[in-house]
């Protein structure tokens, strides 16, 4: 049996509804007494949270977006994620590099080779063990967003942009099928919750103590 996933990322277009499910995963793992780091990107450190504020609210081109998110990611990895993994914590991260490939790469049409180079420099081969991709049609996500909050800079993009972002996630999932699990986020909240907790139970809790 494979080892338990310890670095878990959560992805999807804005409005897919991932945030409340991350809290439910955290509750499940805390009940099982797993030491946890609950964090997000862009963000997760004081420096990266400052970069997040700039990223979400200042106009900029796609290369600047990519450089800012990878700068934030570098700080986040080196000061929080890598030390947490080394101490045996399970890391739950709301978005990671798949978001950069989906939003800046597929959404903005930015050069994937440049993103791949930045990924190599910044991550040095480190990837999540498990990525839960909350997949939902962009029209459904847009309706959920408009009911929930005022849009930030990326959330103001049109449905075609989110069609491309969704396709970007699909391409990443197809390129790494053992890491990705697609969650049908168009279902009811309860059905999505049940799917998410089942995957986490199988890929994290049931594999604890398995030989490496
Ligand atoms: P959040 O609202 O889920 O926290 O995500 C913040 C926004 O930043 C969301 O619109 C996705 C976007 N984003 C990127 O464009 N590239 C990235 O690399 C990351 C991590 C997020």
Which kinds of small molecule does this entry bind, naming each only once? thymidine-5'-phosphate
Question: Widest sheet: strand order?
Answer: 2-3-1-4-5
Strand content of the residues, in percent? Answer: 5-15%
Alpha carbon gap, first and last residue: 9 Å
| Largest β sheet strand count, sense and barrel closure | 5 strands, parallel
Keywords: ATP-binding, Kinase, Nucleotide biosynthesis, Nucleotide-binding, Transferase
Organism: Ideonella margarita
Domain Thymidylate kinase-like: 10-195
Catalytic activity: dTMP + ATP = dTDP + ADP
Topology:
Elements: E1 7-12, H1 18-31, E2 36-40, H2 46-57, H3 62-86, E3 90-94, H4 97-107, H5 112-123, E4 130-135, H6 138-148, H7 159-175, E5 180-184, H8 189-203
Helix pairs in contact: 1-8, 2-3, 3-5, 4-7
The structure holds thymidine-5'-phosphate.
Q: Would you kindly provide a written description of the structure presented here, covering whatever features stand out?
A:
- Keywords: ATP-binding, Kinase, Nucleotide biosynthesis, Nucleotide-binding, Transferase.
- Its EC number is 2.7.4.9.
- Phosphorylation of dTMP to form dTDP in both de novo and salvage pathways of dTTP synthesis.
- It is a single chain.
- It is built from 8 helices and 5 strands.
- With 212 residues, the protein is of the alpha/beta class.
- Strands 2-3-1-4-5 form a 5-stranded parallel beta sheet, with helices on both faces.
- The site of thymidine-5'-phosphate has 13 residues, from helix 4.
- Thymidine-5'-phosphate binds next to helix 4.
